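ESCALATION

Customer reports they have been waiting on this structure for their group meeting. Please prioritize. Original submission:
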Amino acid sequence: MAEAVSDSSITATAAGGLVRVALRTDGRVQAIKLAPQVKRLPVTELADAIVEAVSTAQQELLRRAAEARREASRDAAERLSAEFDHINAEYLRRTAVYDALGTEILKRMEG
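Update from on-call: job pushed to the front of the queue and completed.
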């Protein structure tokens, strides 16, 4: 299970909560906390639990990074769409002005 401790770290647990690992958002280990009951675990189980907790936290960091990229892409698309709408509106406004000017010029040339 992974959880956010703060914006700068992710904490994950393993072995029924006996192992708790905190990773910084840059992926470095911030802390490893072991419950006193881990001394009953075989060394290989403890090692597997630490690896599991680190892996879980890393997966959460990757998920958050992907979510942040999607959000940034969505924001960029919205900004581009708004810019396009603005440019398109300006184009339509200018086209209407040029059409009106052309019509006025033609009227003056005929009359």
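Sent to customer with the following note: The beta strands are 2-6, 9-14, 19-24, 29-34.
Escalation resolved.
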